[in-house]
Design brief:
By secondary structure, this protein is of the alpha/beta class. Helices cover 30% and strands 25% of the residues.
Length: 322
């Protein structure tokens, strides 16, 4: 049995705005095991990124984690002091953000930025840290790695900058890697290269990965398990094969139906999910997906369904699954 590294229990993260309280994450629970890749999937605004930022305790006002537990090897991250958090971030749990250009410091060389993390967590001297930086750039397949330590972020392409972010994230051998849509801004060819690189390095370092994406194609080739989120809640969770073969929740089914397929004829309309995601400040009663759901019944508009077993290792928050 693989060790459970991360356990999120009933997480609630709210944003206090002039319009009211936006419940960005509401009662989210999942686990992440050693060497496993877990996909967190859903439309923009469903709470994926807020969940990852909550795990790293990077939520700032007007946002606040108001409930739940985030256990890393049994210790609640929400109760850690600043010194323990400093050791955790980068050392035990590392994060790759969506846009590497805004995550990298534009006025510092790449080598310095990698070495800075190494010195902080692995207690290496300057020479050893720069050697480690060169080694990591080489591992993420950047040509002439040692020479490029002195280059600045603007001297790298988008795909190369994302590789640098992966190098920084993995330089301290973290137990968990959180990748927040790491390939969103990349073209398809570079996207495939970066995902293949992440998968290979995660296997080499035995790193568990939480992959946040809206691209089900990425999930199919990368993840072991999937959590589907909608309106701040997990609406379905299952092994990846089950999600694609027997999706239980109507929202998961709609997401899969919207994926373009090679056999579609030229000019054929793509499937779309009708309607709009709900306003998180003023959520309707009952199931939040009910206004857009083709299976919705009166009960769906009155009661909130809970995650329940619908198959082997598969749970869905739906009164009428499949």
């Amino acid at each position: 049995m693989a060790e459970t590294l991360l356990e999120v229990k009933n997480l609630q993260t709210h944003f206090y705005t002039r319009s009211g309280v936006a419940k960005a994450v509401e009662d989210v629970s999942f686990t992440l095991n050693e060497s496993e890749t877990l996909g967190l999937v859903g439309e923009s605004g469903c709470g994926k990124s807020v969940t990852s930022l909550s795990i790293m305790r990077l939520i700032s006002p007007p946002g606040k984690v108001v409930g739940g537990e985030i256990l890393y090897k049994g210790d609640d991250i929400l109760d850690m002091d600043q010194e323990d958090l400093y050791k955790l971030r980068g050392g035990q749990i590392a994060m790759i953000f969506q846009d590497p250009m805004t995550s990298l410091n534009p006025v510092l060389p790449i080598g310095f930025q990698i070495a800075e993390a190494v010195k902080a967590h692995l207690k290496m001297d300057d020479t050893a840290a720069m050697n480690r930086a060169a080694e990591m750039l080489d591992r993420v397949r950047i040509p002439e790695a040692r020479r490029r330590l002195k280059d600045y972020p603007h001297q790298f392409s988008g795909g190369m900058r994302q590789r640098v972010m992966i190098a920084i994230a993995l330089s301290c051998n973290p137990q968990i890697l959180i990748a927040d849509e790491p390939t969103t801004a990349l073209d398809v060819t570079i996207q495939a290269q970066v995902l293949d690189l992440m998968k290979g390095l995660a296997t080499e370092f035995r790193t568990a990965t939480l992959l946040i994406t809206h691209d089900l194609g990425v999930v199919a080739g990368t993840c072991d398990r999937v959590c589907v989120m909608y309106a701040g809640r997990v609406v379905e969770t299952a092994p990846t094969a089950a999600i694609f073969k027997t999706p239980a929740h109507p929202y998961t089914q709609a997401l899969l139906a919207a994926v373009p397929r090679p056999e579609q004829q030229r000019g054929e309309r793509l499937a779309a999910i009708g309607g709009q995601p709900p306003n998180l400040v003023n959520l309707p009663p009952g199931c939040p997906f009910a206004p857009r759901c083709r299976k919705a019944q009166p009960r769906c508009r009155q009661e909130l369904p809970l995650l329940e077993n619908v198959g082997p290792n598969q749970r869905a928050a739906c009164f009428y699954p499949y």
